[in-house]
Write a sequence for this structure.
């Protein structure tokens, strides 16, 4: 699993222009107005007197509007600039400058409008004066989650994640997710487990092998029965098998995809998969890939190392995870 991300370590300032579609829309409006105004004036060439003056007068208005839109499209494009001490938002008619010290927090959430049935991603900047500023995904070409990561890094905001129930198609979880999640919980599986410790013992004897080496394909998600036969696979294969076995033990568990970074000694590029489960009132991460360490960790101890994107629980309810960073709060919500 691979996923491109922006380089959040690149120093500030960094600027992000508005969507190119908005620029094209402004150019389109200006061209329409220029053509209408030009056609009106051109049509008045054969006229004389008051009628000619009237057609020139009414033709100049679309020309003026077209030239104004052309000027605004070329000069006053929407732009967000992040500086070490300032956040600058340049709109069409004005510019707003925020002091970085006044940034209290940043979070993502989704809204549904009558214009679009698909949820629209919105980033909200919370300010110290009690006000907030919202930027939706339609205004920027950069994915908002990547922008939040960049702001969290440069403005030193403590990061957590809020889980939101949503209808996420299984193909969104990764390129190798080609079957419904119910398939992984059904079908043949011969390995019997009686406890979480049994799950960990069996996983330790399995070998981590990339899909490119095992199948000569970029991304393949094995069924738990296939994984048992080979005892080889990558992070998704390990996690899907563990998710099924936790389900068989009637332990609430979720299969999660996202990004993980333990440090220089163990960092998987791009996306990663793992399992979370609840037992005795506490949530744990089952990390089956790094077998040189224990496989089970309390989630609150490792939340800073894991960035969840999507998950699915044992009841087939899917979730998306949205970042929230607020000064003075370091408790993870994942």
């Amino acid at each position: 699993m691979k996923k491109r991300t922006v380089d959040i370590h690149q120093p500030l300032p960094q600027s992000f222009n508005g969507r190119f579609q908005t620029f094209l829309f402004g150019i389109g409006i200006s061209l329409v107005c220029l053509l209408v105004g030009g056609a009106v004036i051109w049509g008045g060439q054969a006229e004389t007197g008051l009628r000619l003056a009237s057609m020139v007068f009414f033709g100049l208005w679309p020309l003026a509007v077209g030239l104004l839109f052309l000027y605004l499209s070329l000069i006053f494009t929407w732009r967000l600039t992040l500086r070490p001490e300032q956040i600058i938002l340049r709109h069409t008619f004005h510019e707003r400058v925020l002091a970085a010290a006044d940034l209290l927090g940043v979070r993502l959430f989704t809204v549904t409008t009558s214009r679009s049935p698909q949820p629209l991603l919105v980033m909200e900047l919370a300010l110290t004066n009690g006000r907030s500023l919202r930027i939706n995904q339609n205004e920027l070409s950069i994915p908002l989650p990547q922008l939040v990561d960049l702001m969290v890094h440069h403005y030193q905001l403590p990061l957590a994640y809020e889980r939101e129930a949503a209808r996420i198609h299984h193909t969104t979880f990764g390129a190798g997710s080609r079957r419904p999640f119910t398939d992984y919980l059904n079908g043949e599986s011969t390995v019997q487990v009686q406890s979480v410790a049994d799950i960990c013992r069996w996983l330790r004897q399995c070998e981590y092998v990339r899909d490119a080496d095992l199948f000569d394909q970029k991304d393949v998600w094995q069924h738990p029965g296939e994984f048992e036969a080979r005892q080889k696979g990558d992070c998704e294969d390990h996690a899907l098998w563990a998710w099924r076995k936790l389900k068989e033990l009637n332990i609430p568990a979720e299969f999660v995809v996202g990004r993980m970074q333990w440090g220089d000694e163990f960092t998987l590029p791009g996306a990663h998969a793992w399992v979370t489960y609840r037992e005795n009132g506490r949530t744990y991460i089952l990390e089956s890939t790094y077998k040189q360490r224990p496989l089970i960790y309390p989630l609150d101890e490792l939340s800073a190392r894991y960035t969840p994107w999507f998950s699915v629980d044992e009841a087939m309810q899917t979730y998306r995870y949205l970042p929230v960073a607020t000064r003075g709060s370091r408790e993870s919500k994942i």
